[in-house]
Protein backbone atom coordinates (compact mmCIF):
# COMPACT_ATOMS: atom_id res chain seq x y z
CA UNK A 1 0.00 0.00 0.00
CA UNK A 2 1.13 3.57 -0.54
CA UNK A 3 0.18 7.21 -0.32
CA UNK A 4 1.80 9.83 -2.54
CA UNK A 5 1.73 13.58 -1.89
CA UNK A 6 3.19 15.29 -4.97
CA UNK A 7 3.02 18.99 -4.07
CA UNK A 8 4.70 21.82 -5.98
CA UNK A 9 5.61 25.10 -4.28
CA UNK A 10 6.18 27.93 -6.79
CA UNK A 11 7.88 30.04 -7.85
CA UNK A 12 10.24 27.63 -9.58
CA UNK A 13 13.54 29.30 -10.44
CA UNK A 14 15.48 26.47 -12.12
CA UNK A 15 15.16 22.99 -13.56
CA UNK A 16 13.03 21.35 -16.21
CA UNK A 17 9.63 21.49 -14.53
CA UNK A 18 6.07 22.54 -15.17
CA UNK A 19 5.54 24.84 -12.19
CA UNK A 20 6.46 28.37 -13.28
CA UNK A 21 3.58 30.20 -11.63
CA UNK A 22 0.17 29.21 -10.24
CA UNK A 23 -0.01 32.55 -8.42
CA UNK A 24 2.57 31.44 -5.88
CA UNK A 25 0.24 28.89 -4.30
CA UNK A 26 1.14 25.20 -3.79
CA UNK A 27 -0.64 22.68 -5.99
CA UNK A 28 -0.77 18.93 -6.67
CA UNK A 29 0.52 17.28 -9.82
CA UNK A 30 -0.88 14.14 -11.41
CA UNK A 31 1.41 11.75 -9.49
CA UNK A 32 -0.49 12.63 -6.31
CA UNK A 33 -2.75 9.88 -4.96
CA UNK A 34 -4.03 9.62 -1.42
CA UNK A 35 -4.10 5.85 -1.22
CA UNK A 36 -3.63 2.71 -3.24
CA UNK A 37 -3.12 -0.92 -2.33
CA UNK A 38 -2.62 -4.31 -3.90
CA UNK A 39 -3.66 -7.51 -2.10
CA UNK A 40 -2.50 -10.89 -3.40
CA UNK A 41 -3.89 -14.21 -2.14
CA UNK A 42 -2.61 -17.57 -3.36
CA UNK A 43 -3.65 -21.07 -2.42
CA UNK A 44 -1.77 -24.24 -3.31
CA UNK A 45 -4.03 -27.30 -3.36
CA UNK A 46 -2.33 -29.71 -0.90
CA UNK A 47 -2.23 -32.70 -3.26
CA UNK A 48 0.86 -33.61 -5.29
CA UNK A 49 0.52 -32.48 -8.88
CA UNK A 50 -2.37 -30.13 -8.10
CA UNK A 51 -2.50 -26.51 -9.33
CA UNK A 52 -2.44 -23.28 -7.35
CA UNK A 53 -5.04 -20.50 -7.49
CA UNK A 54 -4.18 -16.80 -7.22
CA UNK A 55 -6.31 -13.69 -6.68
CA UNK A 56 -5.32 -10.00 -6.94
CA UNK A 57 -7.27 -6.99 -5.67
CA UNK A 58 -6.05 -3.51 -6.61
CA UNK A 59 -7.65 -0.35 -5.19
CA UNK A 60 -6.79 3.22 -6.26
CA UNK A 61 -8.30 6.33 -4.71
CA UNK A 62 -7.51 8.31 -7.90
CA UNK A 63 -4.68 10.42 -9.30
CA UNK A 64 -4.99 14.18 -9.57
CA UNK A 65 -6.66 15.19 -12.86
CA UNK A 66 -6.23 18.95 -13.01
CA UNK A 67 -7.68 19.30 -16.51
CA UNK A 68 -11.14 18.11 -15.42
CA UNK A 69 -13.38 21.24 -15.46
CA UNK A 70 -14.97 22.55 -12.28
CA UNK A 71 -16.49 25.70 -10.73
CA UNK A 72 -14.98 28.07 -8.17
CA UNK A 73 -14.85 31.88 -8.28
CA UNK A 74 -13.77 32.60 -4.71
CA UNK A 75 -10.59 30.58 -4.05
CA UNK A 76 -7.47 32.24 -5.54
CA UNK A 77 -5.75 28.82 -5.54
CA UNK A 78 -8.25 27.21 -7.89
CA UNK A 79 -7.70 26.27 -11.52
CA UNK A 80 -11.44 26.92 -11.95
CA UNK A 81 -11.19 30.56 -10.87
CA UNK A 82 -11.91 33.08 -13.61
CA UNK A 83 -8.95 35.18 -12.46
CA UNK A 84 -6.67 32.33 -13.55
CA UNK A 85 -8.50 31.86 -16.84
CA UNK A 86 -10.56 28.99 -15.50
CA UNK A 87 -13.86 27.65 -16.87
CA UNK A 88 -16.17 29.17 -14.21
CA UNK A 89 -19.00 31.16 -15.79
CA UNK A 90 -22.57 32.21 -15.05
CA UNK A 91 -25.54 30.70 -16.92
CA UNK A 92 -28.84 32.53 -16.37
CA UNK A 93 -27.50 33.77 -13.06
CA UNK A 94 -26.48 30.27 -11.94
CA UNK A 95 -22.95 28.84 -11.49
CA UNK A 96 -21.86 27.26 -14.75
CA UNK A 97 -18.85 25.65 -16.39
CA UNK A 98 -17.39 26.46 -19.81
CA UNK A 99 -16.21 23.25 -21.50
CA UNK A 100 -14.89 24.81 -24.69
CA UNK A 101 -11.34 24.24 -23.46
CA UNK A 102 -11.85 20.53 -24.11
CA UNK A 103 -12.55 18.94 -27.47
CA UNK A 104 -15.64 16.71 -27.74
CA UNK A 105 -13.36 13.66 -27.64
CA UNK A 106 -11.65 14.92 -24.46
CA UNK A 107 -15.06 15.55 -22.87
CA UNK A 108 -15.97 11.98 -23.80
CA UNK A 109 -12.69 10.63 -22.39
CA UNK A 110 -13.42 12.36 -19.07
CA UNK A 111 -16.88 10.77 -19.05
CA UNK A 112 -18.63 14.15 -18.79
CA UNK A 113 -22.41 14.25 -18.65
CA UNK A 114 -24.53 17.41 -18.46
CA UNK A 115 -28.06 16.92 -17.14
CA UNK A 116 -28.13 13.39 -18.56
CA UNK A 117 -26.59 14.34 -21.94
CA UNK A 118 -23.33 12.43 -22.42
CA UNK A 119 -20.46 13.80 -24.47
CA UNK A 120 -19.44 11.63 -27.45
CA UNK A 121 -16.13 11.51 -29.34
CA UNK A 122 -17.63 13.81 -31.98
CA UNK A 123 -20.22 15.90 -30.11
CA UNK A 124 -19.56 17.51 -26.75
CA UNK A 125 -22.16 18.56 -24.18
CA UNK A 126 -24.77 20.94 -25.68
CA UNK A 127 -23.27 24.37 -26.30
CA UNK A 128 -20.07 23.39 -24.46
CA UNK A 129 -21.62 24.86 -21.31
CA UNK A 130 -23.26 23.25 -18.31
CA UNK A 131 -24.67 24.28 -14.96
CA UNK A 132 -22.12 23.35 -12.30
CA UNK A 133 -24.79 21.40 -10.40
CA UNK A 134 -25.56 19.28 -13.48
CA UNK A 135 -22.04 18.34 -14.62
CA UNK A 136 -21.16 14.79 -13.56
CA UNK A 137 -18.78 12.01 -14.53
CA UNK A 138 -18.45 8.30 -13.71
CA UNK A 139 -14.75 8.40 -14.60
CA UNK A 140 -13.62 11.50 -12.68
CA UNK A 141 -14.38 13.08 -9.31
CA UNK A 142 -15.44 16.71 -9.86
CA UNK A 143 -15.26 18.88 -6.72
CA UNK A 144 -18.59 20.37 -5.64
CA UNK A 145 -19.16 23.96 -6.86
CA UNK A 146 -17.06 26.41 -4.87
CA UNK A 147 -14.86 23.77 -3.21
CA UNK A 148 -12.05 23.09 -5.72
CA UNK A 149 -8.57 23.93 -4.43
CA UNK A 150 -5.44 23.01 -6.38
CA UNK A 151 -3.68 21.92 -3.20
CA UNK A 152 -6.34 20.39 -0.96
CA UNK A 153 -9.29 19.37 -3.18
CA UNK A 154 -8.20 19.10 -6.83
CA UNK A 155 -10.20 17.13 -9.41
CA UNK A 156 -9.20 13.47 -9.39
CA UNK A 157 -9.75 10.24 -11.26
CA UNK A 158 -12.68 8.35 -9.73
CA UNK A 159 -11.77 5.59 -7.21
CA UNK A 160 -11.70 2.08 -8.62
CA UNK A 161 -11.32 -1.59 -7.70
CA UNK A 162 -9.71 -4.05 -10.11
CA UNK A 163 -9.63 -7.85 -9.74
CA UNK A 164 -7.44 -10.50 -11.39
CA UNK A 165 -7.46 -14.28 -11.00
CA UNK A 166 -4.95 -16.91 -12.09
CA UNK A 167 -4.61 -20.69 -12.16
CA UNK A 168 -1.26 -22.39 -12.53
CA UNK A 169 0.74 -25.59 -12.32
CA UNK A 170 4.50 -25.27 -11.82
CA UNK A 171 5.43 -28.86 -12.69
CA UNK A 172 3.00 -30.36 -15.17
CA UNK A 173 4.80 -33.69 -15.68
CA UNK A 174 6.50 -34.02 -12.28
CA UNK A 175 9.92 -33.51 -13.80
CA UNK A 176 13.11 -33.23 -11.80
CA UNK A 177 15.77 -31.16 -13.61
CA UNK A 178 13.51 -30.06 -16.44
CA UNK A 179 9.98 -28.84 -15.73
CA UNK A 180 7.01 -27.61 -17.73
CA UNK A 181 4.67 -25.03 -16.23
CA UNK A 182 1.32 -23.61 -17.30
CA UNK A 183 -0.43 -20.47 -16.09
CA UNK A 184 -3.85 -19.06 -17.04
CA UNK A 185 -4.61 -15.47 -16.02
CA UNK A 186 -7.72 -13.29 -16.27
CA UNK A 187 -6.95 -9.57 -15.88
CA UNK A 188 -9.72 -7.15 -14.81
CA UNK A 189 -12.27 -9.95 -14.59
CA UNK A 190 -15.19 -7.53 -14.05
CA UNK A 191 -14.17 -5.60 -17.19
CA UNK A 192 -14.11 -2.36 -15.21
CA UNK A 193 -14.24 0.72 -17.49
CA UNK A 194 -12.10 3.35 -15.80
CA UNK A 195 -9.50 6.04 -16.39
CA UNK A 196 -5.94 5.71 -15.14
CA UNK A 197 -5.14 9.38 -15.81
CA UNK A 198 -6.56 12.28 -17.82
CA UNK A 199 -4.52 14.75 -19.90
CA UNK A 200 -1.44 14.10 -17.80
CA UNK A 201 1.37 16.59 -18.40
CA UNK A 202 3.78 13.71 -18.88
CA UNK A 203 1.78 10.88 -20.46
CA UNK A 204 -1.60 12.10 -21.71
CA UNK A 205 -4.77 10.05 -21.15
CA UNK A 206 -4.92 6.33 -20.41
CA UNK A 207 -7.62 3.83 -19.47
CA UNK A 208 -7.10 0.76 -17.31
CA UNK A 209 -6.61 -2.52 -19.16
CA UNK A 210 -9.94 -4.07 -20.20
CA UNK A 211 -10.66 -7.71 -19.43
CA UNK A 212 -7.94 -9.89 -20.93
CA UNK A 213 -7.19 -13.62 -20.85
CA UNK A 214 -3.60 -14.83 -20.98
CA UNK A 215 -2.03 -18.29 -21.20
CA UNK A 216 1.66 -18.87 -20.45
CA UNK A 217 3.55 -22.12 -21.10
CA UNK A 218 7.03 -22.35 -19.62
CA UNK A 219 9.99 -24.72 -19.81
CA UNK A 220 12.44 -24.56 -16.88
CA UNK A 221 15.92 -26.08 -16.96
In words, what does this structure look like?
By secondary structure, the protein is mainly beta. The chain has one helix at residues 104-109, and strands spanning 2-4, 7-8, 27-28, 33-44, 52-60, 88-91, 94-98, 112-114, 117-118, 129-131, 135-137, 140-141, 156-157, 160-169, 179-187, 195-200, 204-207, 212-220. The model has no long low-confidence stretch (mean pLDDT 92).
Strand arrangement, major sheet: 1-4-5-14-15-18
Order of helices and strands: EEEEEEEHEEEEEEEEEEE
The total of beta strands comes to 18
Number of domains: 2
Major beta sheet summary:
6 strands, antiparallel
Structural class: mainly beta
Helix content: under 10%
In round numbers, the mean pLDDT is: 92
What is the rounded Rg? 23 Å
Outline: elongated
Low-confidence stretches: none
- Number of helical segments? 1
What fraction strand? Answer: 35-45%
Q: What distance lies between the first and last C-alpha atoms, to the nearest angstrom? A: 35 Å
List keywords for this structure.
six-stranded antiparallel beta sheet; elongated; 221 residues; three-stranded antiparallel beta sheet; 2 domains; mainly beta; 3% helix
Summary, kept brief:
The chain has 221 residues and is mainly β. It is built from 1 helix and 18 strands.
What does the secondary structure layout of this molecule look like, with pairings?
Layout: E1 2-4, E2 7-8, E3 27-28, E4 33-44, E5 52-60, E6 88-91, E7 94-98, H1 104-109, E8 112-114, E9 117-118, E10 129-131, E11 135-137, E12 140-141, E13 156-157, E14 160-169, E15 179-187, E16 195-200, E17 204-207, E18 212-220
Antiparallel strand pairs: 1-4, 2-3, 4-5, 5-14, 6-7, 7-10, 8-9, 8-11, 12-13, 14-15, 15-18, 16-17
